Amino acid sequence: MRLLVTGSLGQLGRALRNRLEQGRCPEEWLGAEVDWADLAEVDISSEASVAAWFGSNGHYDVVINCAAMTNVDGCEADFARAFGANALGPMNLARACAHADTTLVHVSTDYVFPGTREGERTETDTPCPISAYGRSKLAGEGLALSNNPKTHVVRTAWLYGEGKNFVQTMLRLAATHSEVTVVDDQFGNPTSADDLAGEILRIALTDAYGVWHCTNEGICSWADLASEVFALAGVSCVVRRCTSEQYKEANPQAADRPRYSALANARLAATIGNTMRPWRDALKDYIDYQVL
Ligand SMILES: NC(=O)c1ccc[n+]([C@@H]2O[C@H](COP(=O)([O-])OP(=O)(O)OC[C@H]3O[C@@H](n4cnc5c(N)ncnc54)[C@H](OP(=O)(O)O)[C@@H]3O)[C@@H](O)[C@H]2O)c1
Asked: Would you state the pLDDT for residue 200?
């Protein structure tokens, strides 16, 4: 098995590396030969850079694309860069994969949905993003699927792992503040990068190409998540709850975010089984073993 992981220094890339190097993966992956590439090695937004990489590294059985511009507010300010990384990038990878009959796993987001309806979205719900990030990611999904018939698009949400994320930000703020103000009317699924990596390695082995939802189970607001982080870490920091409107007033440059973007892992449940656990259990492991 030959695998290429792009965006390998990001949260999901590192989680995949940990799993594969520690053998916490389906047995088909044991002994796999893996190339790890981040922006310095291959800029996925550049067709020439992708072609050069594939030209000198030969054939892969699977490519997992973890590369993306994930700064949601930054995407609003620089849509050209966002479109390059999040839309042209997966297109370039899909084309390279199609030439070599390679499976592409491309990772996407809950922010492709508008968030106007309560409950969980399944893979058959219609996306309609409300932010530059969401628009660039939705374009990337379509370009990945249409340029390589062997493409899996895996949508996830509210990711935390090794790197910058909401959980780390809350813990950092709590070290210097006695209270934090957090939005309480946006709902989603906090998701462990390590759990997601495990599920992606299972999805990549199937030929059920198309769109998958993959998040930890259960729904909460950002304020609920902050409270749980402080409770699990034993940190005394008060969470002041605010509305999206109040947050936007204080941070006018911030991108709009969907109110209800929780995902249901419907295809996983209907096919290879949904092994994603409740978000609180995954967060507890993260706080216990990775953060403190
Ligand atoms: N983070 C979340 O909460 C979240 C939620 C839903 C979905 N997702 C999706 O999940 C996937 C993984 O997210 P993540 O949190 O692991 O991302 P991340 O930590 O931001 O890592 C992304 C990596 O891609 C690199 N990169 C950026 N532009 C690139 C380019 N043009 N070519 C090659 N590499 C490039 C980044 O390098 P630099 O750091 O140097 O830019 C970074 O190392 C992404 O597709 C993301 O859209 C994430």
From this structure: 98
